[in-house]
Specification:
The structure is a homotetramer.
Chain A lengths: L2 E7 L3 E7 L5 E8 L5 H16 L5 E8 L2 E2 L6 E4 L4 E4 L1 H9 L3 E5 H12 L8 E6 L3 E7 L2 E2 L36 H14 L5 H6 L9 H10 L2 H25 L3 E5 L7 H14 L10 E4 L6 H11 L1
Parallel strand pairs in A: 1-4, 4-8, 9-12, 12-13
Antiparallel strand pairs in A: 1-2, 2-3, 5-6, 6-7, 9-10, 10-11
Helix pairs in contact in A: 1-2, 3-9, 4-7, 6-7, 7-8
């Protein structure tokens, strides 16, 4: 049985797994990312690969999912702010260190591929992944193939501008979608609400230890599950922006299925129902076109490993 | 030599041509669209096809580019407000009338294909067409193939929302891109300027016969060519929104080339230079990624005929 | 009985009347404004004054309500775009021509004073007039006195910015309130609706002779009275912006009464009810403060004459 | 010599002083506000008044400047969220406790009066105070008199809406001016910048102890004084919104002078110059009207005490 290793290389951790040809992870390992030093990050990748390779003889290839712009040859990470990589020939470096063929992919693309093959996107040839976490990770499957764009940097949905002169974004622009529809945006809403309306946001403040900046995403979800009005209002706001953005992507891409992943997707129906509603209200041509499905991701944080490993196989 | 016929079926006219395998139009014919009656429109299509077929023996197939939503089997026009078609099985109807195989495509898609094969998009495998006319017509070529989406209705870029609670759009929503970046948007700007600042817009009013609503697009272009400050301001405004929208599409699609067509593209560099500038300012990740080209379309209104004919060939 | 003459000097007509000390107009006269020539406009004012003065012996003074910026000494019109006046010493000129003391006032201020003394503002010492016509005319009565500001140009509410980067205004800025809440704004909404959704706006188009630009304000009011959904939607939109603006003025001025005048006020409750609703929703501190009344003006176009005449008396 | 006592009753402290008829504070005292209990706050006021009165025989009256809505009789605080007062007859209560006549005024009104009489507004009969602190405190002097509005709650400039659907405000609305132009807004900008662009905001983060939420207003001013680009950008943003708002107030009020106070005014020319520039760009009718002066407040936090004491004298 051919096995491959998938590695999810993020700004805070390197997570790797051995994956079989049905998308099962046989063994997993995880290290913190030594992010300030590009070379050390490559060494860490090699270390986890070696460790896994030592336990399974049949490993034939390695897939890396990296948080950054990956060039169209899937060899070079052009820009990865959280990994301190600029034009890093990471494929060659890691192949040299581990002695196996390596494929490099953007981490959200790897996640999209994992969900498309083995998760919520199964059976859909036209799938859009939207991972709502710190920002928005995006991936796109067209005709059953991962879409990479001309230069390898497509599907960066989070930086579509949705509000002229809107909120600042880390990318240097203003009004990017991920400032309105992401896990961070949910926390932003909750903290802003707690700051200006502490009475209304009493439960959120309580969970946050009394300070607006103490509130985190899982707490907002928890409060919303309890029926807290303030938390539910935060969810409605995020869902409104999410649904509008999915409608915009539908105008461009006309997919058969959206898969919503990322930490925010843990909220499940709390998020999904108002997103569907907002989407239906915002879609152009509604009533005259078939609608895509909107689903919650199924593989959680494993999707990136599974997807990277599967890309290495083909 | 295999010839095919391309027919551009718009709300006001049916234009058809015999096209060879190098994209040349050998003969053309044109009729007004009898738009209030779906059946008559089909008859008109059959009439122009018969007329052309009578002159060229080698015609093997017919491609229709229709202003509307075309289903994923390329057989049925699901919704065409300007043609009074709803779920019209136009492929079967026309095949029955003319005795040749028929392919149906959205008109902007046909235009995109024409430009991709024989016009400004030649040599680009990842091309986005943006036709700035009454609204925005969109087309997309991926890996050298026309992209149709899961249900046949992708690349409707004009209905991406760019301003929350913005200008009304004919689609029923508000803030759609085509309300800010199209030939109509240019006229809107010019008329609004003439309405509120008649002194500044003196030349535009003069060309428009003294009334704001008399101003049309070619007049704005004419005044801008003369260096009229008001007309140039209108162009800058449209170019700003166009460039921003192309940046948004780049975040999603990462194409190698944009082709700008439609009536507004007749303005050439008057439009192109400020669009490029606005695009460069708005693109996320600028400085860390290769840039797509932005070009003016080359085939003009013939692109739809050439594209539809070529799609019928393959 | 002391009589005075009030003259309403607008961009299209000069309307004058003899007014008694209870605000009754005893006789009226009207001439078109020869607006392109400042001197002729003064002559026209003198002509109507002479004509009225010839019929009533007891006329003791003249009040002019002029569409423009009037200086703090009430002598000079600093800027009146529609009358072609710049720093015109109109008090001295007219006194010289007619041999009576003259007081000059901004036309909306004169209207406010008329309504405050003899119209809908009677009994209110803190009154705001908002005249919704071509633009927004504003007036303010504080402690029973007409408020003029430090330099004579206060109460220009129409040019408060309500939308960043919003609609162009004739003043050169963008997003001014009068572009969203005025008679012209109503027509703008109706024409825009007719342009993009002709089916929905069928009745409006019918009244407008089939063309969006044929639609005028009284037609929108007529259609709204008939219950036409499109016209009612236009009214709701205007009322929303009007109510929000009144809430903003309340934050600044805390008046006891708003009087809504101008051509749009002819719509009566069609306008008043949704304005009150929007105001109540938008007011800061609602529930913790007394609310001002919101009334429709009572004197119609006569308010300017009555107000100017009354100002001349005191 | 007649002396009066002014008391500034804020959410965190009660500050009082004995003031002579030239606006000099002869002695000062200060206590924390026992804000959770309305009665205790009145007792604290009485305590500081008794203490000061014991030292100066000639004290004839007491003026209270309270953070809240004060009714038009200057007797009752209708609503003071930070003092836990609702319809509190504070004049009667304090008169009873201290045996002197008491005048109650809104705190920003008292500050405005202090600046108008003895500070930066001297010599101006039409003055607007804008105190940029936690929010925006507003005051208005018309014809040399403090303006109170019909119900005592005018000059709440901070809650004019400047952005439709903008930032949340503690008042329950969205888009209020004080969310964009205040000391808090400066901190908000700086923290947001540090959050999304830590590299650019390095100096601000350093001052803030490494965390965005550690950054405070004086630190932003300090960094701006050093020439830090990020801090200067934050000031420009705040100044832009401040200048726009002053232009809006000028359209309504046409004052002779603006006085900018509050904690943010400590920044002096760093704030003043870009505010003047933004104001000049935004004013309607610029070029055709006299301009108001824009000055920085002179009395600092003493203005409220001085103003309240002076109001008690008259």
């Amino acid at each position: 049985m051919a096995l491959t290793i998938g590695v999810d290389v993020g700004g805070t951790k390197v997570a790797a797994g051995v994956v079989d040809d049905r998308g099962n992870i046989l063994e997993k390992v995880r290290r913190p990312t030594p992010s300030t030093n590009p070379k050390e990050t490559a060494d860490t990748i090699a270390e986890v690969v070696d460790l896994l390779k030592g336990k399974f003889e049949d490993v034939t290839a390695v897939g890396l999912g990296c948080a950054g712009f990956v060039d169209e040859t899937r060899s070079v990470v052009m820009f990865a702010p959280n990994l301190a990589w600029r034009d890093e020939p990471i494929k060659a470096i890691v192949e040299n260190l581990v002695g196996l063929p390596v494929v490099v992919e953007n981490d959200a693309n790897a996640t999209a591929w994992g969900e498309a093959r083995y998760g919520a996107g199964r059976g859909h040839d036209f799938m859009v992944l939207v991972a709502l976490g710190t920002g928005i990770g995006g991936g796109l499957v067209i005709d059953g193939e991962l879409y990479r764009g001309r230069f390898g940097v497509g599907a960066e949905y989070g930086h579509v501008r949705v509000v002229p002169d809107g909120r600042r974004c880390g990318c240097g622009n203003r009004g990017c979608w991920e400032q309105y529809a992401s896990g961070n945006a949910l926390v932003y809403e909750a903290r802003e609400l707690a700051r200006v309306s502490p009475a209304l946001a009493g439960r959120l403040l309580e969970l946050g230890g009394g300070r607006p900046e103490g509130i985190n995403g899982p707490q907002v979800t928890e409060a919303a599950r309890e029926g807290d009005a303030a938390a539910l209002e935060c969810f409605r706001t995020i869902a409104h922006w999410t649904g509008q953005g999915l409608a915009d992507l539908t105008a461009v891409l006309d997919p058969g299925c959206f898969v919503i992943g990322g930490g925010l997707s843990d909220a499940g129906d709390l998020l999904l129902e108002p997103v569907r509603q907002a989407f239906a209200n915002a879609l152009t041509g509604r009533g005259h076109r078939p609608l895509p499905e909107i689903r919650i991701a199924e593989l959680g944080s494993a999707a990136g490993i599974v997807g990277a490993a599967d890309l290495a196989r083909s």
